[in-house]
Structures are given as structure tokens and as C-alpha cells.
Amino acid sequence: MSMAQGEFVALLGANGSGKSTLLKVALGMLRLTAGSISVLGGPAGDANAQIGYLPQRRAFDGGTRLRGVDIVRLGCDGARWGVPLPMPRMIGGPARRRKADAERVEQAIELVGASAYAKRPIGECSGGEQQRLLIAQALVQRPRLLLLDEPLDSLDLPNQATVAAFVARICAQEGVAVLLVAHDVNPLLPYLDRVVYLAAGRAVEGTVEEVIDSDTLSRLYEVPVEVLKARDGRLVVVGQPEPPAHHHDRHEHAHEHTHAG
Amino acid sequence: MQAEPTLTWNLARDVSEVLEYHFMVNALLAGTIVAVMAGLLGWFMVIRSETFAGHTLAMMAFPGASAAALIGVGAAWGYFVFCGAGALAIGRFSRGRTRSWSEQSASIGAVQAFALALGFLFVSLYGGVLGDLENLLFGTVLGISDGQVLTLAAVAAGSLIALAALGRPLLFASVDPDLAGARGVPVRRLSIVFLGLLGLAVAATSQITGVLLVFALLLAPAATAQVLTARPGLSLALTVALGLMIVWLGLGVSYFSAYPAGFYVASIAFALYVLARAWAWAHGASRRRMALTREPTHEGVIA
Predict the structure, then answer these.
(1) Which residues from chain A sit within 8 angstroms of residue B229, using beta carbons?
(2) Which of A21, A138, A180, A193 has the fewest beta carbons under 10 Å from its own?
């Protein structure tokens, strides 16, 4: 498979089919035993500074005493030696760079619409808010490629829809190529350029219309999968892969959000 | 020399009286050095949720001191060697890509049990009661020599320079090991280096507060500061300020009273922590009330 600039590609498949592994290979964290990979015109791992990565998560527990803005900032300068954050100028690096960093952090936070809660301790933010801040962290380096490992996981349905929509918006606005790992393709369907399915050592790729039909998916997962067309033309995938079955507690989540917000 | 030091209402006079005694000057110097060093390393320890590792390193002082007594060298040597070795052992066993938190704490616990067993062995080989047991447990702050102050200053300077160079990647690796690793931060090596620095801080602190009260200076200032603020810069500054306040007040008050310095240092540290929690609770309660009276908003957008 290959990805072009500004493309929005979903990487789908059952647990253990190697989706996260593929991202780690693209980052050069794991080596290929067979085959070849080229990332941003070079061997994997060489251009990691131009890749925004969101590892599989990883919620911050309530006691994490750092603000969202600090977490985003670490995406910018975390790998540089030195003291963390406001310290005497001489130690903290040239003032101009620090100012540029601060501006980029602010832009990234605005881009994901997290300005309202970026100054709160991240442990006190809801799952959706944390996920947005983490995407801002992945975006802060102005990457050419975004690798998002299950950013929709552990979000309730309305949040899955909003996060999918704004990832698509960023992809279009900033010309970033996005490879997004997901379990459930439904919230992503309206936005995807292409999909890649991994299952039992096989892979199928193509546009949504090419790949997402009942026969292809049923063959891939080896269980019956139905692809239905809603009256407005949207596709809905039913059967495997099911979204995680925790929707019964949606009301509790909504409740939490009103408290936190 | 006065028969009985008494606290007067003249603070300047009280302070100058305290500073007339060389042992008090040394105690304050050592306390100041340790407060800064232990506070800053403790801050990272709290962020990294490695308090159990810190506690285990404190226990290393027991085999350290007993081994030193056994071969007849100064206790400080034993502290530094065993705390350093303990840090390496914990780093070796407890930090792996696939290790879960429960597995990590179990292996740290195993290291602790073995260290205490070694200490017990050394004491019985020594063949007598360890003379300074109380000093080991509760510190010898009032008997610190000029040489010890210098050693502490050198160790503190070395570890603070290291921390200043490593601070940002260390914070990154602490809150986000996967991402930091992808961005080229040597996560595993950093965690071992950090444990080594923490071991040094523990060894230095236990000479002031003793093994049992190490957390009064290592954990309490950082934990208190982190309750009060989530801004890293401010939080680090507050940690140092609180540590200095705890040491100076504790030593000062103990000079004028019959009870040991360690008791005051630990009690003041605890009192500050309780006050901070109470403040945060009251603050949170008023914010929750405000949140409830506001128009409820759902942060996800759905029509």
C-alpha cells in the first residue's frame, strides 16, 4: 500500500491483526522481517520529527498534575535536553525559539478547539478533551504525516463523531496525510479517502466504495458482515467489527461532562 | 553557653542565637542542600509514580549502614553505595516495555525484602548491636561535620546539573513513554539514570532525617506543591520553597524545644500537605458549585 500527501486513510481490522504494529514499523520502532517500507522518502525512523504520533491510549489518571498545555508543549520540545518549562532564559534556550514554540502550542490547541480547557490539569479533563489535547500534541510539530492509534477508542459516540470530523478537517486544511487505526469504521465513513483492512495475515485496500461491501468484509473477517446503505446514501457496517459494547453507560458520561465543563 | 535556649519574641535575636553554634550552622547548611536536592528529585518521583521505588531506596540505607559498620568505613559510604546499587537493581527488574504496574511494584518489593535481609545479615555478622541504630532510623542532623556538608554539597551539585540537562526529556518520558521513545528519547536509560539520582538524593536525605523520615523532604514538598498547582515551573519552585521552609522551621523550632528535629521536620511537612489538600478541597467544592449553577453544556457536538 502507499499513501499520498493529504490523504485520510483508515487502518481497520480485528484485535491482533497488526494495526498498531504497522504504525510502529512506520516509526522505525520495530523492524520488518520481510518486505520493505519507505516513510517520507527515506527508511522508517529517519523522519520521525515530521511524523505526529498518537500512541494507543492511555488515559491520564485524575491525579496527573500537569496542564493540557504542558502536555502539548512536550510534543514540541520534550525530546530536547534542558529543564522543563519556565526557567531562567539562559538555561531554557534562545528566547526566540521559546516564543516560536509557545505560539505553535497555542495554534495547535486552537486547531483542535481545546483552548477552553488547555490550562486545566489534564487529569481533570474528560476522555474526549484529553484525546483532543493529545491530537494537538501530535500536531504541534506541523507534521507531514499523522499516525493515530485508535483515537476514537474510549470515546462516547458524539465524541467519536466530532473527533473524526476534525481530524478530516485538519487533513484537508493542513495537507497532512493521516493514517488512523480504528475498530469501528462507521464514524469515519463520511471522511475517508481510502481504507485498509488487515485480517488474519491478509490485507485489502481501496476506496470506501471498493472495499466496504458485505462480501469483501465477510470474507476478510470470516463471519457474516452486512453493509447497509442508509436512505441518505451513507454506508453502515453491521456485524463484525462491532464497536466496543459499552454504550449503555452513555448517560453517565454525559453527566460527567456537564460537571467537568 | 546558655543553660536553656528559650524562644523570645525577638525573631532576629533568636536566629542569631541559633547561628552562634557551629553544629546548628552545619545542620542548616546540610538541611538546605538536602531540601533543594530531595525536593526537585522528589517532584519527578511523584510525577513518575515511583514513590514505592523511593521508599525502597530509603530502606537501602539499612544494609548500607550495617555494611559500613561491618567493614569499618563511614556510614555515608554505605548509604551511597547501597542506594546506588538498589537503584540499578530496581531499574533492571522493574522497567520493561511489557511490564505492568503490578509486576513492577512486586519486583521492587522483592528487591526491598532482599535488601533488608542483607542488612539483617550484616548486623548479625557485625556481632553486636548497631550503635547508631537510632541515628540510622531518625537521622543525625545535629552531629553533621564540615566534611559531610561538603560531600552533600558536591553530590547535590552533581545531581542537580544532571537533572537540569535531563529534566525535559525525563518529564516527557514520564508522562508519555511511547511517544517519547518514538521521538528518540532514550526512555529506558533515562529511567535508570533517574533512579540512580533518586538513590543519591535518598542517601543524602537519610543523613538528615534518618531512613524512616526520608519522605518528609523527598515526597511531602513535591506532593504538596502538586496539589496546589499544575503548572510545572511554579510547582518546581514551590517544591523547593516548601522544602526550605520545612527544614528551616523544623530545625529552628527543635533548637528551642526538647523534642528531636526529625519530629518537627516530618510534622511540619505533614501539616503543610494536609493544609494544601484542605485548600484544594475547598477550592474544588466552590468550583463544583459554580459548575452546577452554570448552563450544562456537552462538550461533544450533537444535534
Answers:
(1) 65
(2) A21
pLDDT, tens digit, 9 for 90 and up, residues A41-67: 888 888 888 899 998 876 787 778 889
Rounded-to-integer distance, Cα A85 and Cα B172, Å: 12
Secondary structure of B150-196 in HEC code, one letter for each residue: HHHHHHHHHHHHHHHHHHHHHHHHHHCHHHHHHCCCCHHHHHHHHHH
Give me the residue label for grid cell 548479625: B124
Please, what's the b/e burial string for B11-45 (b: 16 or more CB within 10 A of its CB; e: otherwise)? eeebeebbeeeeebebbbbbbbbbbbbbbbbbbbb
Q: Which domains does chain B have, with CATH numbers?
A: 11-302 (1.10.3470.10)
Q: Say if residue A105's pLDDT is above 80.
A: yes
C-alpha cell at position B292:
452546577
Asked if the interface predicted TM-score (ipTM) of this complex is over 0.85, the answer is no
Closest chain B C-alpha to A174 CA, distance in angstroms:
22
Q: Could you tell me the pLDDT band of residue A11, with boundaries at 50, 70 and 90?
A: very high
Residue for grid cell 523527598:
B218
pLDDT value at position A78?
A: 84
> Using a CB-CB distance cutoff of 8 angstroms, which residues of chain B are in contact with residue A128?
299-300
Length of chain A: 261
Closest CA to A241 of A203, A186, A188, A191: A186
The pLDDT value recorded for residue A251 is 43
| Dihedral sign computed on CA atoms, order B99, B100, B104, B110 | negative
Rounded CA separation A183/A163 (Å): 15
What's the average model confidence in pLDDT over B223-238? Answer: 93
Cα separation, B267 vs B216, whole angstroms:
8
CA dist A74 and B187 (Å) reads 14
Judge whether A184 is closer than 8 Å to chain B, CB to CB.
Answer: no
The span from the CA of B88 to the CA of B57, in Å, is 10
Report phi then psi at A54, rounded to 5: -115, 100
Find out whether B197 and B38 touch, Cβ atoms under 8 Å. Answer: no
